[in-house]
Amino acid sequence: MFVTLIKKQLLELFQSWFINRKTGKARSSGSTALLLTLFGGLFLILGFTFYGMACGVGAFLLGSGQNWLYFAIMALFSMILGVFGSVFNTYASLYLAKDNETLLSMPIPPRTLLAARISGVYITSLMYSALMWIPAIIAYFVLVPLNVTNVVFPIILTFVIALFVTVLSCILGWVVALIASKTKGKSIITVILTLIGLGIYYVVYFKIANSLNEIIPKLGEYGTKIKSWLWYVYELGEAADGKAVPFIAVILITAALFGICFLVLSKTFTKFATASSSTKAKKVKGEQGYSSRTLAKALVMRELKHFTSMPTWMINGGLGLIFLPAAGIAAFVKMNTIREGLAEVSANVPELFVALPVLFIAAVCFISSMTYITPVSVSLEGKTLWQLQTLPISAWDILNSKIRMCMDLTTLPVLFFAVVGGIVLQLDAWLIAVICVITLLFQFLLAEIGLWLNLLLPNLSWTNPAIVTKQSPSVAIALFGGWLFCAAVGAGGFFICAATNLYVALAAFILLYGIAALILRRWLKTKGAKILATL
């Protein structure tokens, strides 16, 4: 039974790579190979980046015999990357899967189902944490003499670190489930708690990282304090360097933490897994009037309610909505420092200073591209899509409402960062206005691209919304493609400014975004609407 559940979990995690969810048939070998090649290339690029960072840290620490500290730092980075990759979908994976009640009604022990669910969290944690840890191991192999233990132990610890990350993610998911089960507005509570938990985690992490940077020059003086404050990390570093006793201790401690975590979760799993579907009748006191809306507004409100009812969608797809105002506030707080830096740039690299508005546009677009709402908006309709298709409304009205809802959410954050950033950079008022127009055009284009991708790569048969919001090909292409596009636009705009002037670059942006948006809008009205009607 457990093996069958594990296979089911793996199928849910990776099925979209091999099965066309639109037709329900297996993808062609060429299509599968292309997807795997694209993501394999992306992981290789990230791996080489992390390898370069590991070599830089290793050159300083390994050369002076501080091997344990090298592995401690790399382990911390691996853990933060692992938590970042898995924390957003842990709550949804464990407690919000659509088939939880069906499986619990079968003769399946709740602990067995929980173990299968956690296996999915573990695999995700392993994928992300290993992305940092494996390059660190390779750099270590290159820089130090090798023996049996310092080769085998770091490799085994790859899986131990992933288990520790799983414990952290499951604890956060359990806390969110516990509080959400006792409060109203569970979706918003879930999002707030997850973001608070993640924020606390990152604050603690960077405090530790800063402490380590201060301690490195005085390692002999602070050696005892490191063992006291960060004993687990210290033992992990010693274990990775080939020490047998710390290696055994780390494995036993991690296993014990996982056992305790699993025991606690198993006590409440059934309650939390079935709580999400329970509903209570709303009491109506007295007479209440009802207001009417136009069709367009009603569809937009429906999309907004759908978005705010799914925590995983809000958390994963709405990060840009948080980062944009946060970036504006940070820029305002650091205004004097930024302006001092710009004065130096103006004196030393005048070409870069001339292209500053273009580079700022690329920065705003880069952050706004983290808001990927439309790349999953069709897929998250799931098997209830037929309800929309049977209504007396056109498919284009449905698609347009998804774009409008996305723009309603993103317009103010984009404008806030564009205006505040422009003031900090001391740009002219007309230039700030042009930047606002260009960045909003980009956000509109991004919403259309996301919808286009989701219509081409839909997934309507999901059981866990986290599978859609985190692992859909449409999400990956929209997110990483958006980043690469912003980088290309920034570089292209810089060279246009160098070759001609700023006005030509701004005009090029407006034409590029405007024409692309019109072309995509035409496609969505015609072919896109036909695709939606036949899904």
In percent, how helical is the residue content?
Answer: over 70%
Strand fraction equals: under 5%
Q: Can you list the strand order of the major beta sheet?
A: 1-2
Largest beta-sheet characterization:
2 strands, antiparallel
Shape descriptor: globular
End-to-end separation in angstroms reads: 34 Å
How many β strands by DSSP?
2
Average of per-residue pLDDT values: 79
Question: Could you walk me through the main structural features you see in this protein, from its secondary elements to its overall organization?
Answer:
With 535 residues, this protein is mostly helical. It has 22 helices and two strands. A two-stranded antiparallel ribbon has the order 1-2. Helix 9 crosses helix 10 (244-275) and helix 11 (295-308) crosses helix 18 (395-424). The longest helix has 34 residues, at 110-143.
What's the layout of helices and strands?
Elements: H1 2-18, E1 19-20, E2 25-26, H2 29-61, H3 67-95, H4 100-104, H5 110-143, H6 148-180, H7 186-215, H8 219-229, H9 231-240, H10 244-275, H11 295-308, H12 311-317, H13 319-333, H14 335-348, H15 350-354, H16 356-368, H17 385-389, H18 395-424, H19 429-456, H20 465-471, H21 473-499, H22 502-534
Antiparallel strand pairs: 1-2
Helix pairs in contact: 1-5, 2-3, 2-5, 3-5, 3-6, 3-7, 3-9, 3-12, 3-20, 5-6, 5-10, 6-7, 6-10, 7-12, 8-9, 9-10, 11-18, 12-20, 13-18, 16-18, 16-19, 16-21, 18-19, 19-21, 19-22, 21-22
